[in-house]
Amino acid sequence: MRQHKLALCKEHYLEWVPEQTERFIKQYGMFGHDDRVLVAVSGGKDSLSLWDILIRLGYQADGLYIGLGIDGGIGYSSESHRLSQQFADARGLTLHVVDVEREYGRPIPVLAERTRRGLGKPCSVCGLTKRHVMNRMARDMGYDVLATGHNLDDEAAVLFGNTLVWEGDYLLRQGPVLPGSQGLARKVKPLCRFYEREMTAYALARGIEYIYEECPFAEGSTSIYYKEILNQLESARPGAKLTFYLRFLEARRSGLFREDQQAVGSLHPCPKCGQPTTSPGLCSFCRMIEKINQPET
Amino acid sequence: MTVKLILRDREYEVRAGMTLLDALKKSNILPESVVATRAGEMILEDEILKDEDVIKLIAVISGG
Questions:
Q1: Is A177 an 8 Å CB contact of chain B?
Q2: Tally of domains within chain B
Q3: How many beta-carbon contacts under 8 Å exist across A and B?
Q4: Nearest to B42 among A205, A212, A235 (CB)
């Protein structure tokens, strides 16, 4: 780990990762041992490792798997579900499963096609749906906090993209903790300071079986392109990604970005699902579902 | 005196005796984007690669 000027053997590495995670959970005030944590798991290395770490640290953590109905010729969703379920069963953990097609009538690729959101790629519909379902499940099942497996590379890539176009509103909201509010679950990212490479090494060293294949729709995505650019920077300047993210958090904390009070004040519950929205009527998710349920003209 | 690097469905050959880091650079693979294993065990960037080593590279980037 050149960014930390640190090299550890397997045994010590497997101790170091949970210790650091615990440090970040405390430093950012994410949650405590009395809180019930819902971990969003995708079957990938980051979310399964996060679940593993939280259990090792003694937290009360259940899992949530969202079946997206993506096949891509490799049975992507069914395989990621199988691996998530296998992980939970082997450890006697509770995994909640929400199948998008069963709940909302159609799988993600069809929802995307019918709504024409996202310029031919289902990623925008997928993100909207996952955020909606995660929030609903955390809220309805009484969890104190929703934890996702975003790592430092995920965070740095989002930050890079938002900085390129100075998305002030998004920059303001990015961080290890998104506070909860009426109808919105508290969201935390305990792995946000680990490099993607460190999380891969953790999953391999722990023998966690995860889905190695990429989502078929992720190929050529902007976020992967940004990650590659940042890795080039990292190779030339070890620590560049971490500094980029940590200095951003410092700048945000010191007031570099300012909340638009008008926008904050205008949040109100969606009349259908009750989740907060800025739009005057239904939230984006309910509008999307309403649209696909209309007869085609 | 060759070493084989395997990344997904691609194979690269490098000379034995160089470090993993040099082998990755020579193959135009960003060291940050992979974790290297030999016989199922992870190896570090300063590991000297030996003749007939087969190094499996695990891609680390995910997301969409």
A1: no
A2: 1
A3: 61
A4: A205
Distance between B47 CA and the closest CA of chain A, angstroms: 12
Determine, yes or no, domain membership for B64: no
End-to-end CA distance of chain B: 40
In a domain, B20, yes or no: yes
- Mind telling me how many Å the CA of A211 is from chain B's nearest CA? 10
Tell me the two tokens of residue A173.
Answer: 């909201």
Interface predicted TM-score (ipTM) of this complex, two decimals: 0.93
Residue A48 sits at the vertex; the CA angle it makes with A120 and A243, to the nearest 5 degrees, is: 80
Q: What is the pLDDT of residues A97-125, one digit of tens each?
A: 999 999 998 899 988 888 877 666 888 89
Domain containing B18 equals 2-59
| pTM assigned to the model | 0.92
All structural domains of chain A, each given as residue ranges with its CATH number in brackets, are 2-241 (3.40.50.620)
pLDDT, position A7:
75
Q: Which residue of A has its CA nearest to B32?
A: A231
CA–CA gap between residue A249 and residue A256 (Å, rounded): 10
CATH of the domain at B53: 3.10.20.30
